Amino acid sequence: MSNCSLRLLREIDASLVARLVGSQFPHWSGLPITAAEPNGWDNRTFRLGPELLVRLPSADRYAAQVRKEHRWLPVLAPHLPLPIPVPVAMGEPGEGYPWNWSVYQWLDGTPASAARIVDLSEFAVGLARFLACLQKIDPTEGPPPGPHNFFRGGPLETYDAETRKAIATVQGMINAELATQVWETALGAIWHGGPVWVHGDVAAGNLLLRGGRLAAVIDFGCSGVGDPACDLVIAWTVSLRAESGSISGRTATRCPDLGTGSRLGIVESLDHLRGKPSSRPNRSGGGSPGDR
Fold it and tell me: Which residue numbers in the chain have pLDDT < 70?
C-alpha cells in the first residue's frame, strides 16, 4: 500500500464518519459512532447507533466493491440460507474522502475460530450449504473475475509470477521444490463447469458466529462469478487448521454440490507439504475440497 493510502487509512476515523453522515444523511447525525472491533484493512467499519454500520474502503483498489455490493447483495440475499449484509444507503465522496462508502444493517456475531465453534461438523455442513446455494443463483450479468475482486474465481495463471516469486522468497523455510509441484498441479486443475457465484473471501473473519454456531456471512467485496474453487479455501486456512481435515472431509461428503474433482490431488499435496496424512479419498467415496 502506498504512503498516500496509509495516510488515508489513518485518517478514516469516527470524526470523518460523523462529518460524512452529518452532511449526507443528517437524519442519522445524532447516532453514536464507534469503531468496530476487530476492524478490517480493506475497509474500515464503524457502528452507527445500535442497528447500522458504516463501511469505508481504505484504498482505491477496494472502491469499486461498494457499488457492486449495493447492486448484487439484494439479488443474492433471498436465495441464501444465512443472513448477509443488507445495504441501507450509499454515500458519496466528501469531507476529503475520495470514494463511495456504505451504510449497512448491523449483523451481530463474533468472527469464527476453531475455539469458538460448538460443533465443527455442523459448522462445515452449514457453510457448505450456504456455498452450494450461492453457486445455484443465476450468474447472468454477474461481475466476472477482474481487478474489483483481485481475479477471485479466475484462472490461476493470473497469480503465477507472484506465486513463484513467493516460493523463491521463502525457499529456505519450506520445501520449495514440492511447493512448486503443488502450484503446477494447481495450474493444471481445470474447472469444467460454467461460471457460478463465488463469495471470494471465505475467511474466518467473514463468518459470524452466535452461540458458537454459524449465523451470518459478511464482506462480499471479492464476490463475482467464476470458478468456485476459491471458496473452498476455508477447508485449510490457518484460522481453522486444527480441524481442517474434519471441515473438508465432511463438507465434501455431505454437500457434493460443491464438487471436488481434480482438486483432490492439490489437497493431497498440500497435506503432504504441511506434514499431514493425505486426506484424498479412496474409490469408496468421501473427499476433501480444496482451493488452489
Answer: 1-10, 236-292
